[in-house]
Amino acid sequence: MHILVVDDDASRADLLAAAAARGCPGAHIHIAPPAAAADPATEQSPAGLVMLGPGTIDRPGALDVVRAARARRPAVPLLVVSAQDGAAHAVAAMKAGATDYVVLDGDADEIADAVACLLRAAPIGGRRPPRAATAAGEPLGGLIGRSGAMDEVRALIRMAASTEAQVLIEGETGTGKELVARAIHALGRRAAGPFVPVNCAAVPETLAEAEFFGHTRGAFTGALQERPGMLQLADRGTLFLDEVEDLPAPLQAKLLRAVQDHEVKPLGATALRRVDVRIVAASNRDLWGMVEAGEFRRDLYYRLRVITIRLPPLRLRREDLPQLVEHFVARFNRAHGTTFAPPSPTALRSLTAHTWPGNVRELENALEALLVFAGATGAGLDDVLSRQTAAPTGLVLDERTRILHVLEAHRWNRQRAAAALGISRVTLWRRMERHGIRDPLGSPLCETA
C-alpha cells in the first residue's frame, strides 16, 4: 500500500506521515509538495490513499487542488487534514471531492483512525469508490435528490460521520431526519455497533428514567429482572433521540450528565456503569426558541448541537420531486410485484403544484394511495394524476384529511393509526388537536381549520 502525503511544511508532513503509518502499518509513505496533489505522474507508485495537509488545504485555491486531486484519482480515498475547525470549511472540502475531513489539533490519533477507516472501506489499489464518496446527487443513506440543498446535506453527513461529535438534526416532520441519523451511523466509525432509535415523545414521563438508564431487579414494583436502558443498549454505537424537545426536564439534566461523564446509574443500582455512546438528536421544533423560553436546558442544547444539520422542506427543493417520485414508484413495484411506469412530466404537474406540508413522508403516502387506486381501477398512473389536475382535493391529501382517513381505516385506534402514519401517539394527538379532529365516539369533529 502506498500513501501520498501532500504538505509544504517538512515537520508537519512528517507528523502526518507518522499518523498515516500508524493507521496503515507497513504502508509506503511518500511525502510531496502541493503541486503533486493534481499530478499522479509525480508519484513513485500509484497511491492507495492521498492525504492533503494544512499546507495544501488551508491556503487560497485549496478547493481547486481538492477538485483536481479527485478528478485525477476518482477511485482513491482523499483525506483532508486541516487546521481550521469550521463546518463551512469542511462542507466545502467535502463538496469539492474529499472523502473524509479531520482537524489537526495537536493529536494525530484521529488522523490515524481516519486512515485506517478509509483503507478498510477501499481495497488496496483503489479499485472501487471509497467510503461515502458518492457523486453529487446520488443517494446517500436513502436520501434522494440532486438539488444543491441536498448536496450540502450529504456533505454535512460525511463530515459528521468522520467525527465523534454530537449532532443535532433540525427539520420539519417528514423531511427524513432518521435517515440522516442512520447515514451518519453507517458511514462512521461506530457502524459495527448498535443504532438505537428512541422517540422521546412516546416515552411516558413516569418511565423515562428507567427507559433511558435501565433498572436493577426489585428497583420498583414490577421490576422482576434487571433491564438495561437505552444508553446501555447503544454502548459503542449511536443513540438517536427523535423529537428530543419532548424529553422531560428532570431527564434532560440526567442525560446531560451521562453524555458528559460517559456513565449511567440504573435505578436501584449502587454503582455507576461506563457507556460509550454517541448522541444524534432530532427536532421538528425551534429548539433554540424553547431554550430562550425556558422549556429546554441551555447546557444540553449546546452539548447536542456541536454539529447542526438542517433538512430543507420539500417545497424548497421541488427540483428533487421527479427523482423522489421515481424512487417511490420503483419501491412500490418491488413490494407489490406491479409494473407502474413513473409519471410523465405533464402528469407530474399536479404533484409539483402541491406544497407538501408533510414533506417527503406525505409524498410517499400520497403516491402509495394513488398507486393502490390505479391498481384497483386498472388505470395508469398518468391517468390517475390527470384526474388530480381536474380534482385537486382527490387522492393528494392534506395533512388533516390524511389523518382522518387513517384514523377511520383503523377504527379510531390511535396506536395503530400513529404507526401507519409513522409518528408517535403523542404527535398524533397533537396534530388532531391542531386540526380540530375529535373522536366521533366522543366530541363531534370540528370544522376544517
What's the short story on this structure?
The protein has helices spanning 10-23, 54-57, 62-72, 87-96, 109-121, 148-161, 177-187, 208-213, 230-233, 249-261, 287-292, 298-304, 321-336, 349-352, 359-377, 381-390, 399-409, 414-421, 425-434; strands spanning 2-6, 28-32, 49-52, 78-82, 100-103, 167-170, 195-199, 237-242, 263-264, 273-274, 277-283, 307-310.
Give an overview in words.
- The protein is of the alpha/beta class and 449 residues long.
- It contains 19 helices and twelve strands.
- β9 (263-264) and β10 form a beta hairpin.
- α4 (87-96) packs across α6.
Largest beta sheet, briefly? Answer: 5 strands, parallel
Low-confidence sequence ranges: 122-138, 389-397, 443-449
**Spatial order of the strands forming the largest sheet:** 2-1-3-4-5
Query: Roughly what is the average pLDDT, rounded to an integer?
Result: 80
Query: In terms of quaternary structure, what is this?
Result: single chain
> What best-fitting shape do the alpha-carbon axes yield?
globular
**Structural class computed from helices and strand pairing:** alpha/beta
* Separate helix tally: 19
Helicity range: 40-55%
Number of strands: 12
Topology record:
Elements: E1 2-6, H1 10-23, E2 28-32, E3 49-52, H2 54-57, H3 62-72, E4 78-82, H4 87-96, E5 100-103, H5 109-121, H6 148-161, E6 167-170, H7 177-187, E7 195-199, H8 208-213, H9 230-233, E8 237-242, H10 249-261, E9 263-264, E10 273-274, E11 277-283, H11 287-292, H12 298-304, E12 307-310, H13 321-336, H14 349-352, H15 359-377, H16 381-390, H17 399-409, H18 414-421, H19 425-434
Parallel strand pairs: 1-2, 1-3, 3-4, 4-5, 6-11, 6-12, 7-8, 8-11
Antiparallel strand pairs: 9-10
